[in-house]
Amino acid sequence: MTSSSQPTAVVTGASSGIGEATARKLAADGFHVFVGARRVDRLEKLAEEIGGTALQLDVTDEDSVAAFTSVLPTIDVLVNNAGGAKGLATVLDADLEDWRWMWETNVMGTLRMTKALLPKLIESGDGIVVTITSIAAFETYDNGGGYTSAKHAQGVLHRTLRGELLGKPVRLTEIAPGAVETEFSLVRFEGDEDKAAKVYDGIEPLVAADIAEVIGFVASRPSHVNLDTIVIRPRDQAPGSGARFARR
Ligand code: NAP
Q1: How far is Cα 68 from Cα 58, in angstroms, rounded to an integer?
Q2: Which CA distances in Å does 243 have to 109, 155, 200?
């Protein structure tokens, strides 16, 4: 599966978007990458292209996480990327199932994967956990409470580890992107392509490779350097509550 000297990485949610681009980047940088997601057909194609290993993974399912992690060797880099949003609704009109999906995937999924892989990361002698949160982990916006609350919780989970693991050979990096054009909006709007396209209308959003490039940089710093938090936005998006875009 891997040669003993080759560094290893796990990327969750590698069947599209940021995860797929990250798996490509880390493989190009010399990692053997274990790619996980629910859509195995996509993963297998990717793994063949990058010389990695495809393994089915549902981060919301305890047994699936156990099966995925039990076959892994020592791991140098874990990228907690699987996640996303469902719907846009006020708290008053909140769909509890959408909220549950967001919390299970973004928060509990990150918890399950991190908990299961920390021993293997520590064993590596220089492990790195990269968690893809969002600017939604720092800001709120109207109709976005399900996603922003989940991303805040995911961020807090990740940041808590920085203190708890002090003295252990594990670095922790939170990456908080603004608008990246991936399948994210398609998932949020349940496959409605017009609605999804409108999100990026008149702006130049980030692309998945922009984020992957930074993850490659994070994973290639010397052991004593911990990049704690990196916020990445398109030039056309300003910080602040709500989607502050410069649309042309
Ligand atoms: P994407 O293209 O929709 O990718 C999401 C990935 O997550 C897919 O590979 C999907 O694979 C996987 N996934 C979803 N549920 C899963 C589950 N239960 N178990 C395992 N994998 C699961 O969206 P993306 O933009 O690349 O999103 C990646 C991460 O970046 C997410 O955490 C998202 O919240 C975050 N983010 C995105 C943006 C943005 O604007 N795009 C901004 C900030 C943060 P399967 O469906 O095959 O399982």
Answers
A1: 9
A2: 26, 20, 11
How far, in Å, from the CA of 5 to the mean position of ligand 1? 30
Nearest-atom index, ligand 1, CA of 14? 9
82 Cα nearest atom in ligand 1: 7
Instruction: Identify whether 147 is a catalytic site residue.
Output: yes
Instruction: Output the ligand 1 site: residues, CB below 6 A.
Output: 12-19, 37-39, 57-60, 81-84, 105-106, 132, 134, 177, 179-180, 182-184, 187, 208
- Please state the domain extents for the chain: 8-245
Reading the chain (248 residues) residue by residue, the pLDDT tens digits are 566 689 999 999 999 999 999 999 999 999 999 999 999 999 999 999 999 999 999 999 999 999 999 999 999 999 999 999 999 999 999 999 999 999 999 999 999 999 999 999 999 999 999 999 999 999 999 999 999 999 999 999 999 999 999 999 999 999 999 999 999 999 999 999 999 999 999 999 999 999 999 999 999 999 999 999 999 999 999 998 766 898 88
* Residue nearest atom 31 in ligand 1 by C-alpha distance: 83
| Whole-Å CA distances, 141 to 12, 19, 177, 187, 215 | 26, 25, 15, 19, 27
Best residue among 62, 132, 175, 204 to mutate for probing ligand 1, ranked by most atoms within 8 Å of CB: 132
How do beta strands 32-37 and 8-12 pair? parallel
CA dist., res. 178 & res. 68, Å (int):
30
What's the CATH number for 8-245? 3.40.50.720
